[in-house]
Amino acid sequence: QVQLVESGGGLVQAGGSLKLSCAASGSITGINSMGWYRQAPGKQRELVAVVYGSGAINYADSAKGRFTISRDNAKNTVYLQMNNLKPEDTAVYYCNVDCIRWSGRYEYWGQGTQVTVSS
User: Fold this and answer.
1) What is the pLDDT of residues 55-84, one digit of tens each?
2) Are 24 and 4 in contact (CB under 8 A)?
3) What's the Cα-to-Cα distance from 21 to each of 14, 44, 46, 119, rounded to whole Å?
4) What is the rounded CA–CA span in Å between residue 25 and residue 22?
5) φ, ψ for residue 66, nearest 5 deg
6) Is 75 helix (H, G, I), strand (E, B) or coil?
7) Composition of the chain by helix, strand, coil, percent to 5
8) Got the DSSP string for 5-54?
9) What is the spatial distance between Cα 71 and Cα 79, in angstroms, rounded to a whole number?
10) 72-118 pLDDT, tens digit each
11) Among residues 32, 55, 58, 56, which one has the least CA distance to residue 46?
12) Contact, 24 vs 111, CB < 8 A?
């Protein structure tokens, strides 16, 4: 089995910063992508940022210029540095991993971490 452990959420004032981390553990032979999604109350889950095994990165328009995704391949850990946070960034943030195991390709989700930005 694969486990994702997230950390780094919390309460911050507008303009502040937070850094999320997500560590994947278990019998993983390869990772296709690691990313962050978020879901605000009453809204659908949306992509924030994703980094692919090739190193390519995609950001949601709302994250461009403020958020930075990075990955430590040796630790199977993905980070999301969030700067200049806005109240509309308030949501539960979920880590997502698309990986290869001996039995095939799988997708996993973290438990979610709450990010609250006060105005």
Assistant:
1) 999 999 999 999 999 999 999 999 999 999
2) yes
3) 20, 22, 18, 24
4) 10
5) -120, -35
6) helix
7) 5, 60, 35
8) EEE--EEEETT--EEEEEEEEES-SEEEEEEEEEE-TTS--EEEEEEETT
9) 6
10) 999 999 999 999 999 999 999 999 999 999 999 999 999 999 999 99
11) 58
12) no
Look up residue 98 and give its amino acid: D
What do you get for the CA distance between the two ends of the chain, in Å?
40
Long-range contacts (CB closer than 8 Å, 24 or more residues apart) made by 109-112: 109/4, 110/4, 110/5, 110/6, 110/22, 111/4, 111/6, 112/6, 112/39
Per the listing, tokens 């095994």 go with 53
Token pair, residue 38, equals 């978020």
Buried b / exposed e over 3-23, threshold 16 CB at 10 Å, is ebebebbeebeeeeebebbbb
Measured distance CA(119)–CA(107) in Å, rounded: 35
